[in-house]
Amino acid sequence: MKLNILCIGDIVGRPGRRALAMRLAGLVKERQIDCVIANAENAAGGSGLTPQIYDKLLKYGVHLITLGDHAFRKKDIIPVLEGNTNIARPANLSVSAAGRDYAIYQTARGVSVAVIPLIGRIFMKPADCPYAKIDSILPRVAQQAEIVIVEMHAEATSEKVAMGYYLDGKVACVFGTHTHIVTADERILQKGTAYITDIGMTGSHDSVLGRKSECVIRAFRTQMPYPFEIATGDVRMSGILVTVNSHTRTAEKIERIQLTLDEADAIEYDNDDGRPDYQNAGFYP
Ligand SMILES: [Fe+2]
Ligand SMILES: [Fe+2]
Question: Measured in angstroms, how far is the CA atom of residue 40 from the centroid of ligand 2?
C-alpha cells in the first residue's frame, strides 16, 4: 500500500498556526494525505507549546507532533507529553526527561506511522548519542509501525546528512528541522530512504527564523537579551510530501511543499489563547 505523509516544518507563533488553520485541510484533501506530522517547538509565541495549542493543531488536522530544543519552554505541556502517544520530544534527551521517545498514529487505512525525533550535538545543548539511541529503540518502534520516520533536529547540516546515510534502508524518511531554512537537496537515498536536510519553517518568512528582524538584529548588535516579537509578513507553510510503500517500508517519492498564505487570511490571527505573541528575552531566535 502506498501512503502519502506530509511533514510540516517548525510552526512559529500565530502566523504559523494560522497557515495550518487556513490551508492544511485543503492540502490533505487535494494530495490524498494519510498522515500529517508537524514540528511544534515554536508554536506558542515562538518558543514551546501549550496544551491549548496542542489541541488546536490536532483540530487543524495534524496527527503527530514533534518538539525540539524548545520542548520544555512552556511547562504546562509536560502532562500532555506524558499522557499522549501522538506527541514526542527528542528521543536522545536524558532518560529522565519527561515525555516519549516517539509518536505513533494509525492511519484510516490501517497502516501505522511512527516518528522519532532526534536532536543534534553540534552548536546545541548537550544530548545523548543520537546513534546509540536510534539503534536501541528502532527495533521496538518498527514492530509497532510499518512506516518509521526520523526527524533530525540539528543546527549542523553535516549531522543531518550523516544521520540520513546511517539510517538509509532502515527507515522510510529522515528529514531535518531546526534551522527554519528549507534546503534544496531532497532525494531518495540508495537503499530507499527519503532524505532532506531541512524542511523549513511554517510562519512569517519576512523575518529572522519567524521573529521580527529588528528584534534579532538588536540582540546580535548589543549582545543583550531582548524579547523576540513574532513577525507577520509573507506567511508560508513549508514541508515535504513523502510517498511510502508500506510493504517495502521505503520511500518512492519526496517532494518539497511550500504554500503561501494570502495576506487577507494572514491578518486574522487566531488570538484565543490569551498570550502575547513573543518569545521570552533571549540572545538567539
Ligand atoms: Fe524551531
Ligand atoms: Fe529548534
Answer: 10
Domain residue limits, the chain: 2-262
Supply the pLDDT for residue 272: 47
63 labelled catalytic: no
Cα–ligand 1 centroid distance for 38 (angstroms): 11
Quick one: which ligand is closest to 11's CA? 1
Average pLDDT over residues 205-223: 95
Q: How far is the CA of 107 from the centre of ligand 2 (A)?
A: 27
Distances (CA, A) of 124 to 133, 166, 183: 17, 21, 20
Closest ligand to C-alpha of residue 68 is 2
Name which of 37, 53, 165, 50 is nearest 113 in CA terms: 37
The structural architecture, per CATH, of the domain 2-262 is 4-Layer Sandwich (3.60)
Q: Which three cell numbers stand for residue 237?
A: 507553510
Q: For the whole model, what pTM was predicted? A: 0.95
